[in-house]
Amino acid sequence: MAQTIARGSGREYQLENIDQAFQSFMREYNKKYETDEQYQVAKAAFAESMREIEELRANGDITHEVGLNEYADVPSGVFDKAFQCATDPQFEENLRSVTATYPQDEIEAPPPSVDWEAAGALAPVREQSTRLNRCGSCYAIAAIVALESRFKIQTGIAKVIEDAHRSKVRKPLTERWICAV
Protein backbone atom coordinates (compact mmCIF):
# COMPACT_ATOMS: atom_id res chain seq x y z
CA MET A 1 0.00 0.00 0.00
CA ALA A 2 1.34 3.46 -0.91
CA GLN A 3 2.12 5.94 1.85
CA THR A 4 0.27 9.24 1.35
CA ILE A 5 0.95 12.68 2.75
CA ALA A 6 -2.10 14.90 3.18
CA ARG A 7 -1.88 18.55 2.27
CA GLY A 8 -3.58 21.42 4.00
CA SER A 9 -5.81 21.70 0.94
CA GLY A 10 -6.99 18.13 1.39
CA ARG A 11 -4.93 16.74 -1.48
CA GLU A 12 -2.76 13.72 -0.93
CA TYR A 13 0.66 13.02 -2.44
CA GLN A 14 2.17 9.58 -2.87
CA LEU A 15 5.48 9.36 -1.04
CA GLU A 16 6.74 6.68 -3.43
CA ASN A 17 6.56 9.07 -6.38
CA ILE A 18 8.41 12.22 -5.34
CA ASP A 19 8.62 13.52 -8.93
CA GLN A 20 4.85 13.50 -9.46
CA ALA A 21 4.19 14.78 -5.94
CA PHE A 22 6.64 17.64 -6.46
CA GLN A 23 5.04 18.54 -9.80
CA SER A 24 1.61 18.63 -8.11
CA PHE A 25 3.06 20.76 -5.31
CA MET A 26 4.57 23.17 -7.86
CA ARG A 27 1.21 23.53 -9.64
CA GLU A 28 -0.74 24.01 -6.43
CA TYR A 29 1.55 26.77 -5.15
CA ASN A 30 2.52 28.15 -8.57
CA LYS A 31 6.20 27.42 -7.94
CA LYS A 32 8.81 28.21 -10.58
CA TYR A 33 12.57 27.81 -10.28
CA GLU A 34 15.01 29.85 -12.37
CA THR A 35 17.70 27.18 -12.69
CA ASP A 36 17.90 23.41 -12.65
CA GLU A 37 20.05 23.69 -9.51
CA GLN A 38 17.30 25.63 -7.70
CA TYR A 39 14.78 23.05 -8.87
CA GLN A 40 16.90 20.16 -7.55
CA VAL A 41 17.46 21.87 -4.17
CA ALA A 42 13.74 22.60 -3.83
CA LYS A 43 12.81 19.05 -4.84
CA ALA A 44 15.26 17.59 -2.31
CA ALA A 45 13.83 19.84 0.43
CA PHE A 46 10.31 18.78 -0.58
CA ALA A 47 11.28 15.10 -0.41
CA GLU A 48 12.82 15.66 3.03
CA SER A 49 9.64 17.41 4.20
CA MET A 50 7.59 14.44 3.06
CA ARG A 51 9.94 11.99 4.80
CA GLU A 52 9.75 13.97 8.05
CA ILE A 53 5.95 13.92 7.94
CA GLU A 54 5.95 10.18 7.26
CA GLU A 55 8.26 9.59 10.25
CA LEU A 56 6.08 11.71 12.54
CA ARG A 57 2.98 9.82 11.52
CA ALA A 58 4.70 6.43 11.78
CA ASN A 59 5.59 7.13 15.43
CA GLY A 60 1.88 7.46 16.18
CA ASP A 61 2.42 9.66 19.20
CA ILE A 62 1.54 13.02 17.65
CA THR A 63 -1.61 14.79 18.77
CA HIS A 64 -1.68 17.44 16.05
CA GLU A 65 -2.18 17.49 12.30
CA VAL A 66 0.94 17.47 10.16
CA GLY A 67 1.16 18.11 6.44
CA LEU A 68 2.84 20.09 3.70
CA ASN A 69 2.48 23.81 3.11
CA GLU A 70 3.91 26.40 0.72
CA TYR A 71 7.32 26.16 2.43
CA ALA A 72 7.79 22.41 1.90
CA ASP A 73 10.35 23.15 -0.86
CA VAL A 74 12.55 25.36 1.32
CA PRO A 75 15.61 23.66 2.88
CA SER A 76 15.27 23.57 6.66
CA GLY A 77 18.42 25.66 7.25
CA VAL A 78 17.15 28.40 4.95
CA PHE A 79 13.69 28.27 6.52
CA ASP A 80 15.09 28.41 10.07
CA LYS A 81 17.30 31.37 9.24
CA ALA A 82 14.50 33.24 7.48
CA PHE A 83 11.94 32.78 10.24
CA GLN A 84 14.05 33.28 13.32
CA CYS A 85 13.24 36.38 15.29
CA ALA A 86 16.04 38.90 14.95
CA THR A 87 16.95 40.36 18.30
CA ASP A 88 19.64 42.74 19.39
CA PRO A 89 22.14 40.97 21.71
CA GLN A 90 22.35 44.10 23.91
CA PHE A 91 18.57 44.11 24.30
CA GLU A 92 18.67 40.47 25.38
CA GLU A 93 21.36 41.23 27.96
CA ASN A 94 19.40 44.19 29.32
CA LEU A 95 16.26 42.06 29.50
CA ARG A 96 18.04 39.44 31.60
CA SER A 97 19.10 42.10 34.10
CA VAL A 98 15.56 43.41 34.69
CA THR A 99 13.75 42.16 37.76
CA ALA A 100 10.09 42.92 38.25
CA THR A 101 8.01 42.20 41.30
CA TYR A 102 4.26 42.38 41.62
CA PRO A 103 2.15 42.20 44.74
CA GLN A 104 0.47 38.79 44.93
CA ASP A 105 -2.95 40.23 45.68
CA GLU A 106 -3.07 41.92 42.25
CA ILE A 107 -2.60 38.68 40.34
CA GLU A 108 -5.57 36.45 39.65
CA ALA A 109 -4.75 32.77 39.52
CA PRO A 110 -5.08 31.33 36.02
CA PRO A 111 -7.45 28.44 35.43
CA PRO A 112 -5.79 25.04 35.83
CA SER A 113 -6.33 24.37 32.11
CA VAL A 114 -8.09 25.80 29.08
CA ASP A 115 -9.37 23.61 26.25
CA TRP A 116 -9.32 26.12 23.41
CA GLU A 117 -10.73 23.66 20.88
CA ALA A 118 -13.64 22.55 23.09
CA ALA A 119 -14.45 26.21 23.72
CA GLY A 120 -14.58 26.84 19.96
CA ALA A 121 -11.94 29.47 20.39
CA LEU A 122 -9.17 28.49 18.02
CA ALA A 123 -8.39 31.67 16.10
CA PRO A 124 -7.51 31.48 12.40
CA VAL A 125 -3.91 30.77 11.44
CA ARG A 126 -1.99 33.91 10.46
CA GLU A 127 0.78 34.11 7.90
CA GLN A 128 3.80 35.81 9.41
CA SER A 129 5.16 36.96 6.08
CA THR A 130 5.23 36.26 2.42
CA ARG A 131 7.72 33.91 0.87
CA LEU A 132 10.56 34.17 3.36
CA ASN A 133 10.44 37.96 3.74
CA ARG A 134 10.43 37.69 7.48
CA CYS A 135 9.09 40.41 9.70
CA GLY A 136 10.01 38.95 13.11
CA SER A 137 6.57 39.60 14.53
CA CYS A 138 5.71 36.03 15.47
CA TYR A 139 5.48 37.14 19.10
CA ALA A 140 2.85 39.74 18.20
CA ILE A 141 0.81 37.32 16.11
CA ALA A 142 0.88 34.75 18.92
CA ALA A 143 -0.27 37.35 21.44
CA ILE A 144 -3.09 38.55 19.19
CA VAL A 145 -4.33 35.02 18.50
CA ALA A 146 -4.24 34.17 22.22
CA LEU A 147 -6.23 37.33 23.02
CA GLU A 148 -8.81 36.53 20.34
CA SER A 149 -9.22 33.00 21.66
CA ARG A 150 -9.50 34.10 25.28
CA PHE A 151 -12.02 36.80 24.30
CA LYS A 152 -14.13 34.16 22.54
CA ILE A 153 -14.06 31.88 25.59
CA GLN A 154 -15.04 34.68 28.00
CA THR A 155 -17.66 36.47 25.88
CA GLY A 156 -18.78 33.90 23.33
CA ILE A 157 -18.01 36.41 20.58
CA ALA A 158 -15.44 35.53 17.92
CA LYS A 159 -13.58 38.73 17.13
CA VAL A 160 -10.60 39.07 14.81
CA ILE A 161 -8.23 41.70 16.12
CA GLU A 162 -6.57 43.60 13.30
CA ASP A 163 -2.84 43.07 13.36
CA ALA A 164 -1.86 45.32 10.47
CA HIS A 165 0.03 47.69 12.76
CA ARG A 166 2.54 44.98 13.58
CA SER A 167 3.67 44.71 9.96
CA LYS A 168 5.56 48.00 9.97
CA VAL A 169 9.03 46.67 9.44
CA ARG A 170 12.31 48.44 8.94
CA LYS A 171 15.59 47.10 7.64
CA PRO A 172 18.49 48.34 9.78
CA LEU A 173 22.12 48.74 8.73
CA THR A 174 22.80 45.16 9.74
CA GLU A 175 20.53 44.08 6.85
CA ARG A 176 18.46 41.94 9.20
CA TRP A 177 14.72 42.44 9.38
CA ILE A 178 13.59 43.75 12.73
CA CYS A 179 10.11 44.80 13.78
CA ALA A 180 9.42 48.46 14.28
CA VAL A 181 6.30 47.84 16.34
Automatic annotation (TrEMBL):
Domain Cathepsin propeptide inhibitor: 22-79
Single biological process term from Gene Ontology: proteolysis
InterPro entries: Papain-like_cys_pep_sf, Peptidase_C1A_C, Prot_inhib_I29
Gene3D superfamilies, per the entry: Cysteine proteinases
SUPFAM superfamilies: Cysteine proteinases
Record Pfam families: Inhibitor_I29, Peptidase_C1
Protein name: Viral cathepsin, putative
Molecular functions (GO terms): cysteine-type peptidase activity
Signal sequence coordinates: none
